[in-house]
Q: What sequence folds into this?
């Protein structure tokens, strides 16, 4: 059962704000591309709008447990 306590909600909001701050401070994103048959990492510049879009998409993959964000467990069929 989920707690409706304001204290619990503040912890979750704090955790989400911290996660969002991590996304928003990024200036580039590490990607991998194939060069001469080998995989090579490179840094791709990223805008704040792209950071926000990625955060909004990925925050749905997390759940708040005791004030900490954890990846949701998906049940296997």
A:
């Amino acid at each position: 059962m989920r707690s409706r306590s304001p204290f619990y909600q503040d912890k979750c909001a704090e955790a989400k704000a911290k996660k969002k701050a991590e996304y928003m401070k990024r200036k580039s994103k590490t990607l991998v591309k194939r060069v001469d048959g080998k995989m090579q990492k490179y840094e791709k510049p990223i805008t704040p709008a792209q950071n926000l879009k990625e955060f909004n998409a990925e925050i749905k993959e997390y759940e708040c447990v005791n004030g900490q964000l954890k990846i949701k467990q998906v049940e296997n069929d």
Remarks:
- The CA atoms of residues 12 and 67 lie 5 Å apart.
